[in-house]
Write a structure and sequence with these properties.
Distance between the termini: 29 Å
Number of strands: 6
Low-confidence stretches: none
Largest sheet: 4 strands, mixed
Number of domains: 1
CATH architecture: 3-Layer(aba) Sandwich
Number of helices: 10
Structural class: alpha+beta
CATH topology: Glutaredoxin
Helix content: 40-55%
Strand content: 5-15%
Mean pLDDT: 91
Length: 272
């Protein structure tokens, strides 16, 4: 099959419905789609319907829950130009770059060394991680896993503020996490302050990577890459979940380097 140099048909991007419909997650794919300038439209899927929609599209789960059952999540990208269906954020970025290398604003995966690791244990209710891929883009894949682990370890700061669209969606989140109630996601008082301090330290290590090229705001200075979207995707989730006072506090840590990243990615943050 001949691969088109640029897509002519609109792709379908499946995202998790929020209240009101808003993109909280998955931001990494949305930033990559907008960066590559491909035509797409969003289908909003309530959390309880994700498994049904994913199975209906014939896209298998790519991760497992702690009990060994399939973890059905989004995003999914359906590309009618190539009859392709991709069901993982990292795989979507790789697909866009390999299928449409000349589209949009450039290369999602310019060569670079991404010196960052995070190996602390996750809370039992944190979402399962995507395992790193070997081969092409392995440096990015490893970085993606470590950044996801780092933010997932602190997702308790955000979890109870997810603007889910219904009580059924909240019940489904509770079931997936294996907790007893929605209130179990709340972290308050001293425990919250302790997690915030751990979060500040973790972000400090990422800030060092973002500070390597002082021309910024990206890791490669003025040149954006998917590595910036890996971090930025989580920063955008923070924007959609954290209370406003905490958002303002956290985004200004480390001399405002994550605010500059957030603002630098704004040109690719349109919700379509």
């Amino acid at each position: 099959m001949t691969t088109p140099s640029s897509p002519s048909k609109t792709m379908d991007f499946y995202d998790i419905a929020m209240k009101p419909p808003a993109a909280v997650n998955p931001w990494k794919s949305r930033l990559a789609l907008n960066f590559k300038g491909v035509p797409y439209k969003t289908t909003w899927v309530p959390l309880p319907d994700i498994g049904r929609v994913r199975r209906g599209l014939g896209v298998p789960a790519c991760r497992k829950l702690a009990d060994g059952s399939d973890f059905y999540t989004l995003p999914i990208l359906v590309d009618p130009n190539t009859d392709s269906k991709i069901g993982d954020s990292f795989d979507i970025a790789v697909y866009l770059q390999k299928t449409y290398p000349d589209s949009g604003a450039g290369d999602l995966f310019p060569p670079q060394q991404l010196d960052y690791t995070y190996d602390q244990d996750l809370p039992p209710w944190a979402p399962p991680l995507t395992k790193p891929r070997a081969g092409e883009y392995a440096e990015y894949s490893k970085f993606n896993m470590h950044v996801d682990r780092a933010f997932s370890a602190h997702v308790g700061l955000m979890g109870s503020f997810l603007p889910l669209d219904s009580q059924e969606s909240k019940d489904e989140m509770v079931r997936r996490a294996g907790v007893k109630s929605w209130e179990d996601f709340e972290i308050k008082g001293e425990a919250r302050e302790k997690m915030k301090e751990s979060f500040r330290i973790m972000l400090g290590d990422l800030a060092k990577l973002l500070s390597k090229d002082p021309s910024g705001p990206f890791i490669l200075g003025k040149q954006i890459s998917y590595a910036d979207m890996i971090i930025g995707g989580w920063i955008y989730i923070m924007r959609g979940t954290l209370p406003e006072d905490e958002w303002q506090e956290i985004i200004n840590w480390h001399e405002g380097i994550f605010r500059r990243l957030y603002e630098g990615l704004q040109q690719y943050a349109e919700v379509k």
